């Protein structure tokens, strides 16, 4: 399909341990002759396609700017992306760069196999709240969610 052309994609490193940081970088171009049958990218979100939350997304940048929510992308324009990921679930996982577009759905780009070793039990995801308290998002209030 002629919607998105992906190029110069890199997944580094391809072998990590639980809690290690990996990056996915590359570029994509939104084709000038965008298909009429595909919704225009007036509301789009850069995403990562994986079999489950095997990595935790730490940050996403498009053209060097932090990107947290959906927004418009311009047809005919090139975008550079960088996604920082923290390894969470051990195994061999097939990871795609992806753009989700309102009224079109996900458009997956190239993929690579990412290998995570170690134990899922060792995973932590600490954050410091505005009050200065540090909590682990992986386990915080876990007991309140079990019925």
Automatic annotation (TrEMBL):
Record InterPro entries: NH3_CH4_mOase_B, NH3_CH4_mOase_suB_N
One of the Pfam families matching this protein, by short name: Monooxygenase_B
Gene Ontology MF annotations: monooxygenase activity
Keyword Oxidoreductase among UniProt keywords: yes
Superkingdom of source: Bacteria
Keyword terms: Monooxygenase, Oxidoreductase
Gene3D superfamilies documented for this protein: Particulate methane monooxygenase, b subunit. Chain: A, domain 1
UniProt entry tagged with the keyword Oxidoreductase: yes
Protein known as: Ammonia monooxygenase
Provenance organism: Nitrosococcus oceani C-27
């Amino acid at each position: 399909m002629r919607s998105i052309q992906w190029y110069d994609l890199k997944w580094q490193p391809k072998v990590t341990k639980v809690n290690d940081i990996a990056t996915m970088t590359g570029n994509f171009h939104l084709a000038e002759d965008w298909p009429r049958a595909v919704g225009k990218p007036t509301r789009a979100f850069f995403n990562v396609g994986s079999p489950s939350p095997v990595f935790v997304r730490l940050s996403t940048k498009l053209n060097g700017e932090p990107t947290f929510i959906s927004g418009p992308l311009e047809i005919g324009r090139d975008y550079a992306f960088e996604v920082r990921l923290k390894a969470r679930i051990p195994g061999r996982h097939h990871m795609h760069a992806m753009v989700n577009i309102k009224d079109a759905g996900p458009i997956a780009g190239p993929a690579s196999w990412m290998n995570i070793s170690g134990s899922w039990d060792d995973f932590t995801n600490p954050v410091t709240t505005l009050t200065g308290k540090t909590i682990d998002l992986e386990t915080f209030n876990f007991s309140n969610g079990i019925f």
